[in-house]
Amino acid sequence: MLALSAQAAAWFLPFVLPICLWVAYTDMKSMRITNKAVVTLFAVFVVVGLIALPLDAYLWRYLHLGVALVAGMALNAGGVMGAGDAKFIAAAAPFIHLGDLRFVLALYAACLLAAYVAHRIVRATPIRRLAPDWDSWSAGKRFPMGLALGPTLAIYLGAGLAFGK
């Protein structure tokens, strides 16, 4: 059972899922997670969070955003991740219940591994001709992290809907 309530997941998921898909698509297409996607995700939390969460939990979740943003900025400065990845993680952080952090990290590891393997396989096969203009195919060692970050948040909220308290 997840600490995230099924009710909160039910409120968040319909709004967050299209954004997560958009992030995965745009990151594969142009190797960028757009500010528009990040701001939209944050706006969903600002508005829907007021309905989905108790007020005290809603306000505390902004701390998640701040901590994730500082950590992401440090990782970006160190060259570990792109700025869009860091901003997306910060905007996604308020949706995650602190009690589910270990689960989310394990889920992210699984999504990252699956996304990396799938991307590299498709990049090396004729399937890539379905989207020949995507920048991620020719990005060398760089990887579109949105392909793992978006599904991680979407799957977490889906799991919260199914297994939340």
Automatic annotation (TrEMBL):
Bilayer-crossing regions: 6-25, 37-55, 61-83, 103-122, 142-163
Prepilin type IV endopeptidase peptidase domain ranges (all copies): 16-116
MF GO annotations: aspartic-type endopeptidase activity
Lineage summary: Bacteria, Pseudomonadati, Pseudomonadota, Alphaproteobacteria, Rhodobacterales
Alphabetical list of Pfam families matching this protein: Peptidase_A24
Coiled-coil region list: none
Cellular component GO terms held in the UniProt record: membrane
Organism of derivation: Salipiger mucosus DSM 16094
Keyword terms: Membrane, Transmembrane, Transmembrane helix
Name this polypeptide is given: Type IV prepilin peptidase TadV/CpaA
